Amino acid sequence: MITELDNVKSTITISLGTKNRLRNLKGSRNYEDFINYLIRLRNESVYEPIINTIEFQQFQRKKGLFYHDNFNILFSYNKYNRSPNFRFDITIEVIRENGQKINLNEFIRKLSNNSNKDYLNIEYRLYFQLLEKTIQEEIEPRYKHNGRFEDYFSWEKELEILNMPKKAFEEDVMEKLRQFESRAPL
Would you give the end-to-end CA distance of the chain in angstroms? Predict the structure, then answer.
């Protein structure tokens, strides 16, 4: 079986066992992306301060701005850190239409009037667009979510690739999906 790694001309010699572990760890990514991912992890561990004491449970909040047509959405989220208890906890702060403040319900009502989508579907998509933008800002600028917004398996895989804690997936994706589903009309 000849792989991409076999075709690369290199002076690096590795054992067959290491090569097999590398192939298993890289999954469906190509080798260049996987090596860049490993380099990024190494740089994070070397250049970020390591704290071996009690973890702070209060996360630093950051603000983001999301544009949709003539609407600006100011939202806040937790700044990423390597805590196993990390979650983004996205909160919409202010929505403006042409500079004028409007509330979330009015914003979603206006969007649902302009499209054939219901209120819940628009709110649902908005949240996951904010989550995607947050991940792009905080962790991986090249991040692209390939699945549908309701495809939680793809979200789980993407967050795992980004080395995010399982708690972030549970609270930022699954908890929100459960909340949206519980409010969905029957």
Answer: 52
